[in-house]
Amino acid sequence: MDQAAVPGRLDALWRIEGARIVAALARVTGDVGLAEDAAQDAVAEALAAWSRTGIPRNPGAWITAVAKRRAIDRWRRTELLQDRYQELARGAQDEAAPEWNPLPDDVLRLLFTACHPVLSTEAQVALTLRVVGSLRTDEIARLFLVPAATVQQRIVRARKTLAAARVPFEPPEPNEWTPRLRGVLHVIYLMFTEGYAATSGESWTRPDLAAEALRIGRILAGLVPRVPEAHALVALMEFSASRFAARTGPGGAPVLLADQDRTRWDRAQIERGRERLARADALSKELGRARGSYALQAAIAQCHATAVRADATDWPRIVLLYEALGRLSPGPVVELNRAVAVSMATGPEAALAVVNRLADEGALRGSHLLPSVRAELLARLGRTGEARAEFSAAAALARNLREREVLERRAAGL
């Protein structure tokens, strides 16, 4: 075994199986923080051991077993071992008797537990993305559009709050789901977002993470069949995931939406998205509610997914949907996306005014998103020198290698 290959294999394993490992440990230990710490101890031990002995046949089981031993070591040090043995014994007796389990999936159970109502929604989401999504602090910071230090503080405070409140790892009963549901949906959405366009690294996408978010979303929608936004979120993910095969070219290079081979889109998945969105809309109508933010985003994704060609996209409708989304969930990313839609519907000049206003307000400072959109608009207006400078500025801010390469090529090609 090439020792140099172990860190990469271990990182990939953790990204794929980390949430399930922590969820299994949390179910056994009854303590989310302890489960995460023990799992990290086991990963560190694997890094040293596998370089000597090679990667075991079932590396996920290896890490889980070692992590359980590390959890027991921690209990010994805190003189809680006997109590924990008694709890485990009681748990084993309980497991022997069949019982109704309202949350049948370990990862979803962990997600509901971490989104505890003693935490603010922001703290719920930050902590859960760290534990369930296995995202690094800088990746979570990018999703929140805040500094990494802010996210780190939120996670530390959330752990202290859960510890102070003595929150056990107990899946809530269905009548306790409502106050946690907003955070749970948001975590699934952000997990998918990171899988759809990775914050950093050498890969443009993380299909494994997106697939896990979609899997959890489908289970959740089945558990809360009367919640329109649960179905709408699944619809959004189905529409977006349908394009994965066409989003990268040879060597993993990103392929922008307008340039994608639409015959490679997953038509069955698009149809599933349509059915889900129709179900969400029917439920909203029955409940007397307007579309929520996930339904509006799904409707936008549906416009793209059902356009037979890029130039057949219904951009005026997409502008209207972004305006509705901006009223419901205002934010600089929504406004920037609206500007892109405006540029396609009416031309780049009106869109550039929107982008310039965002820049004047200091929105999205430190992100490559705003200069990359501004560069495209300037290029379409024939302001080549300014466009080149903006593409270069965006490339300098991009943390994903593939994304940076695209921006550098755009700057060099002008």
UniProtKB/TrEMBL annotation:
Residues 111-162 form the RNA polymerase sigma factor 70 region 4 type domain. This is RNA polymerase subunit sigma-24. Keywords: Sigma factor, Transcription, Transcription regulation. It holds the Pfam family DUF6596. PANTHER family: BLL6612 PROTEIN (PTHR47756:SF2), BLL6612 PROTEIN-RELATED (PTHR47756). Residues 19-78 form the RNA polymerase sigma-70 region domain. Residues 180-280 form the DUF6596 domain. InterPro entries: DUF6596, RNA_pol_sigma70_r2, RNA_pol_sigma70_r4_t2, RNA_pol_sigma_r2, RNA_pol_sigma_r3/r4-like, WH-like_DNA-bd_sf. Belongs to the sigma-70 factor family. ECF subfamily.
